[in-house]
UniProtKB/TrEMBL annotation:
Residues 171-317 form the AAA+ ATPase domain. It is found in: Cell membrane. It comes from Chromohalobacter japonicus. This is Flagellar biosynthesis protein FlhF. Keywords: Bacterial flagellum biogenesis, Bacterial flagellum protein export, Cell membrane, Cell projection, Cilium, Flagellum, GTP-binding, Membrane, Nucleotide-binding, Protein transport, Transport. Gene3D superfamilies: P-loop containing nucleotide triphosphate hydrolases (3.40.50.300). The keyword Membrane applies.
């Protein structure tokens, strides 16, 4: 019989350990508080019968010595049975009350894991992806299209392909095709040349072969060259290549067909070094057989990449050959992703020039994921777990090294995702890299990037249509918050422009925003003065301003505080919003008011009451004054809801400012700039349901702490860790 002791911080934690180790039918022998928490002693179900037998053996002597007229069970046995029953009921009640962890259901993870491994992707890549599975997809059906779309996005961000073939071919250069024997280098040389000939003709292209090992290699390339109408040259000695490339300097495109060598051939290093010694720069393109095993491809890439780096430059990119012979593309694409190679072309047959196509990530991933059932060579999860467990210290160090590289790649992908999805993140990253620079360098960067021409162009490129006016200093701070642009949906953009770089008066700032920035509507942190309101009315610019409950306004001939008008407002809608990371049901009301009895402005008072959607308890009341035009009512309702969700912006700026104070000495303006950028990005990331946010949120949230719930504050702390780690790993690399 095996009796086990469990120690937890509380009863639920201890009971969870019992359930995980012994199952739901375990018998609890004792349950008591100790200095470190709660101690539970339990035994498995299969050992309970042994425990009862021992109890009966203990009771047997007492029964033997008792008078023959006594037939009732021994008191000790009764007590044992009673305790067993009581403990079982206690365990079952704890199991029923213990909440299940908020993670993706095993079905979702299991199906996604099996789908990717069946496609040929490595267990390491699958693990990385599942670690970042968003909370929004935790409970969806396994065939939910959002799950497949997320999987494709995760893979697509890892797969680098050629962006512009025309530019690459027009620039030309010397390209050497390298790789193992039988991978198809000679045929690929002809197909690659044909891509150039079809665009620019054959006058400026030349083919070169260094293959003097394989019988007929020269003649095969000459046949292809004759069909394409291009020159072909053969190199027989090591010193001839440099002379030949010098003579071919007038050719825009030179393609070198090299000798095929196994990745385990000791001559690989010499061959690659020979290419590196040529007078003209040689771009090495590695050919990978898509039908090869993943371990083989891994070895090929490692060997040729190491030899290429030793020769002075890494591999320029790669091509996938024999795609038509590959039952699964996952392994080949996995190797390309992990080694961060750029994939140029995909080859799928022997015909020249037909059987070559430009590598396109969506099409390749669709093909890779469209596999059928698993094969005998697809391991189950248990076997993969055992295989990945290090068995020696050397393997452990290699695994740690790979994990560090994977972490760097993951952080890089997240930064790239943010930069593609949100205008201004590239500037935030650039500013972050100046944190530890001397003050003079920090100030020089600010002068270059925050000058009016640069900022006006950046706001135009971001398609900003609105402007957020911070209206002074955040509470508890002695600095003025920067101006921030708003997009067409009312979302704040991380493109902060410090207030002191604007004109001195609000009317001049409004003129600049309208004439040069294209800002058509405005959000104020406090009610603008009469001159600004007049200018807004004359230009018919919608606006909204946060106001206090004590603010006095005119309504129906009376001057009253806003707090006294709540019951008079007309309900005009309900909406579920995210406020400080929590879902709230918001009821919106409105009331026409004026700021002065004779004021010509017809304003609208907006009152938003937020409630907990489950309990119905009221959580807060918010008030705005704004444009009163009836034609804008529908738009303004959505506008008010969005600004309510972003009401926390100034507080987030203050939090970011305080966090930045613990880092390297910062120029005051750079610190303000970073605080505003970080706050805007954290808020936008929390509110957006676009693909970039869904993909980036899990990683950023995990950087802030595993158990922290999603909120702007959590994402703000995660962004600080992301930028710090990304900068450090990039510098180390």
């Amino acid at each position: 019989m095996s009796v086990m002791r469990f120690l937890g911080a509380n009863s639920r934690e201890a009971m969870r350990q019992v359930r995980d180790a012994l199952g739901d039918d375990a018998l609890i022998l004792s349950n008591r508080r100790v200095d470190d928490g709660v101690e539970v002693v339990a035994v498995a179900e299969e050992a309970q019968s042994s425990l009862v037998e021992q109890a009966e053996d203990v009771a047997a002597p007492a029964q033997a010595s008792a008078p023959s007229v006594e037939t009732s069970p021994a008191p000790g046995q009764d007590r044992l049975y009673a305790e067993m029953q009581a403990m079982r009921e206690l365990l079952m009640s704890h199991i029923a009350e213990t909440p299940r962890p908020r993670s993706a259901s095993p079905g979702v993870r299991g199906v996604l894991r099996q789908r990717l491994i069946t496609a040929g992707f490595s267990a390491r890549l699958v693990r990385e992806m599942l670690e970042t599975l968003p909370d929004e997809l935790a409970d969806v059906d396994a065939d939910d299209p959002r799950l497949l779309a997320w999987s494709r996005r995760q893979l697509e961000t890892r797969l680098a392909v050629l962006d512009d073939e025309a530019t690459m071919l027009e620039e030309g250069g010397v390209f050497a095709l390298v790789g193992p024997t039988g991978v198809g280098k000679t045929t690929t040389t002809a197909k690659f040349a044909a891509r150039y000939v079809m665009r620019f003709g054959g006058d400026d292209v030349a083919l070169v072969t260094t293959d003097d090992y394989r019988i007929g290699a020269h003649e095969q390339l000459r046949i292809y060259a004759r069909l394409l109408g291009v020159d072909v040259h053969a190199v027989h000695h090591e010193d001839d290549l440099e002379d030949l490339l010098s003579r071919l300097e007038g050719k825009r495109m030179v393609i070198v067909d090299t000798v095929g060598m196994s990745q385990r051939d000791q001559r690989v290093t010499g061959q690659i070094a020979r290419l590196g010694g040529a007078g003209r720069p040689v771009r090495r393109l590695l050919l990978l057989n898509a039908a090869s095993h993943g371990d083989t491809l891994e070895e090929v890439v490692e060997t040729y990449q190491r030899a290429s780096r030793d020769a002075g430059a890494p591999l320029y990119g790669c091509l996938l050959t024999k795609v038509d012979e590959a039952p699964r593309l996952g392994a080949a694409l996995d190797v390309v992703m992990r080694h961060r190679l750029r994939l140029y072309y995909v080859l799928h047959g022997q015909r020249v020039p037909e059987d070559i196509r430009l590598a396109e990530a969506p099409a390749l991933l669709d093909e890779a994921l469209a596999v059928g059932q698993g094969s005998p060579f697809t391991f189950d999860e248990g076997v993969l777990t055992e295989m990945l467990r290090p068995t020696a210290s050397g393997q452990g160090l290699q695994a740690l090294s790979r994990d560090l590289l994977a972490q760097r790649d993951q952080l890089t992908r997240v930064m790239e995702t943010l930069q593609r999805g949100v205008p201004g993140v590239a500037w935030l990253d650039a500013a972050w890299h100046r944190r530890e620079s001397p003050r003079a360098i920090q100030q020089a960067w600010l002068e270059e990037h925050l000058a009016p021409p640069s900022m006006i162009k950046a706001w135009h490129d971001a398609e900003a249509t609105g402007l957020f006016w911070p209206g002074g200093k955040p509470r508890g701070m002695d600095w003025a918050a920067p101006m921030l642009p708003l997009d067409a949906n009312g979302d704040v953009l991380p493109l902060a422009w410090p207030l002191h770089r604007w004109p001195p008066s609000d009317t001049q700032r409004l003129t600049l925003a309208r004439r040069h920035l294209g800002s058509h509507w405005h959000v104020f942190a406090r009610v603008p003065d009469a001159d600004v309101r007049k200018q807004l009315r004359e230009t018919d610019s919608p606006w909204l301003a946060r106001t206090r409950v004590q603010q006095r306004v005119w309504h129906a001939g009376e001057r009253l505080a806003i707090g006294e008008l709540v019951d008079l407002a007309e309900p005009c809608g309900q909406h579920t919003c995210r406020l400080r990371g929590r879902a709230r049901r918001v009821t919106l009301s409105r009331l026409p008011v004026a700021l002065a009895e004779t004021d010509a402005d017809s304003l609208q008072l907006w009152i938003a009451m937020s409630h907990d959607p489950e309990s119905g308890r009221r959580r807060g009341v918010y008030h705005w004054l704004g444009h009163g035009g009836d034609a804008l009512d529908i738009d303004m309702r959505a506008f008010v809801y969005r600004q309510l969700e972003q009401d926390d912006l100034l507080r987030l700026m203050r939090t970011a400012w305080q966090q930045l104070g613990a880092s390297a000495p910062l120029d005051c303006e750079l610190r303000i700039y970073l605080a505003a950028q970080l706050a805007a990005l954290a808020l936008r990331m929390d509110l957006s349901e676009d693909g970039w946010a869904v993909d980036a949120r899990p990683v950023v949230r995990r950087l802030a702490g595993e158990r922290k719930r999603r909120s702007p504050d959590t994402l703000l702390h995660g962004l600080l860790h992301l930028l710090t780690a990304h900068a450090a790993l990039s510098q180390a690399a």
